[in-house]
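Need tokens for this chain, all 184 residues.
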Amino acid sequence: MIYIVSGDGPRCGSTMMMRALEAGGLELAYDVACDEAVESEICELPLPVQLREGFPGPEYAGKVLKVWCPPWGSLTHLIPGEYKVIWMGRPAEARWQSIVKFHSESPMGMMVDGAFLEVAYLKDMAVQAGKFVVQNREDMEVSEMSYEDVLKEPLAVFKELVEIGWPIDPVKASKIVDPSRRNF
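Here are the structure tokens for all 184 residues:
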């Protein structure tokens, strides 16, 4: 079994979920160099790794990966296997507000204009198309989780994951969730 965290796109709560699953006892596989460069964000494995033939291989069995749908990543193209997927959902407006805040506080800043918002809308449409593909793959068991629900009732969310076969300690996982770190 390979465990995957994905979702509606950046700023959907995927890093929070990854950290909680790690605290709950699962091992993560991610891009450590990116994680160090982007201040506490858990980055997915580099796209060249994700796009290589046979990804993900047996070295990822029992681990948690962050894998996005196109245009962000390769989730719709994973080799046949056994997957449990957590799909983190967060309303688009809240995610994009968080993205703007996150990047505007970075040293490089971010310019937000009509073109940016149009591209954001198109990317969201592509992700939703990818979500449809993932939900209809027979080898992927997809569990949708609301970012807001995880913040409000983390223990209930992680107990639900245990009930459907995620091998985690729900108490340890729930202690990682910190609503004060909410980004936006």
